[in-house]
Amino acid sequence: MPHFGMPTLIETNSIDECVSLAKELKLDFIEINMNMPEYQLDMIDIEHFKNLSKQFSIYYTIHLDENLNFCDFNPYVANAYLKTVADTIKLAKQLDVPVLNMHLSDGVYFTLPDKRVFLFEQYCEHYLKAVDKFIRMCETEIGESDIRICIENSNGFKNFHRKALEIMLKSPVFALTYDVGHDHGLGGSDGEFVFENTDKLQHIHLHDAVGKNHHLALGSGEIDIHRYLDIAKQNNCRIVIETKTFNSLKQSVEWLKDKKYYEC
Question: What percent of the chain has pLDDT above 90?
């Protein structure tokens, strides 16, 4: 069976509360969301996280800050994000974190009368040089460890994102996260790319949806959840049950138990 995990919910105030809930639901891991102030690099008590992991037989994955933009044209900004990722890789080694999950930034766009022009597309050569620099840095920092940086679909892969991914997925340290609900809201366009590269699929964010209303409890929307659970099993993916409240997370776990996808 795949490993199932939970996100760090906004309703929790500490990693201790997250671990308590994860153990109550018999989940395998917690995805630490570095958008939250309590999970910034300078706020994480490494020894406390280690002790919780050992005491409750639970592990962590990490969701990098969604503002992360290592391709920013301002070198001071780009270098700050590069250092953030490098330091997070060091943290991941200390906590035995197998996966760093991240989005690719859209960057800035100009709105013309008839279209949007994304600057990363307009200056794609500059963009891809920054991508290459990021890849080399990640490979150096990860070294011989088994950490994988998984790129997640969010609001649709742009043409320049796909060019970046083609380069990144040639590196052994990069893989893919498939967010099922986000892709559903976009009509499946990102899923086409993911399923063309299933050998690189290692992580799934699973939630139900109705149209563009995402992060619903499993079984409460219109997505064929069974299909994606089978894909996860076939590809040995970890699954984050990416609902946003206590109640929807508990409802999702009960649904998984009822459908025999989840064993206590």
Answer: 94
Q: What does the H/E/C string look like for 155-197?
A: CCCCHHHHHHHHHHCCCCCEEEEEEHHHHHHCCCHHHHHHHHC
Can you list the positions of beta strands (E) in 34-161?
59-63, 99-103, 109-111, 116-118, 148-152
Cβ-contact 5, 30 below 8 angstroms: yes
* Distance (Å, whole) CA 264 – CA 256: 11
Give 125's contacts (C-beta < 8 A, 6+ positions apart).
none
Q: With beta carbons less than 8 A apart as the criterion, state whether 100 and 89 touch.
A: yes
Nearest residue to 207 (alpha-carbon basis) of 196, 222, 188, 187: 222
| pTM of structure | 0.96
Q: What is the pLDDT of residues 22-76, one digit of tens each?
A: 999 999 999 999 999 999 999 999 999 999 999 999 999 999 999 999 999 999 9
DSSP 7-45: E--TT--SHHHHHHHHHHTT-SEEEEETTSGGGSTTT--
Q: Give the separation between CA 241 and CA 217, rounded to whole angstroms.
A: 9
Distances (CA, A) of 191 to 96, 104, 182, 188, 213: 29, 16, 10, 5, 18
Q: What is the mean pLDDT of residues 127-136?
A: 98
Above 60 in pLDDT, residue 87? yes
pLDDT at 260: 83
At position 96, the amino acid (one-letter code) is: D
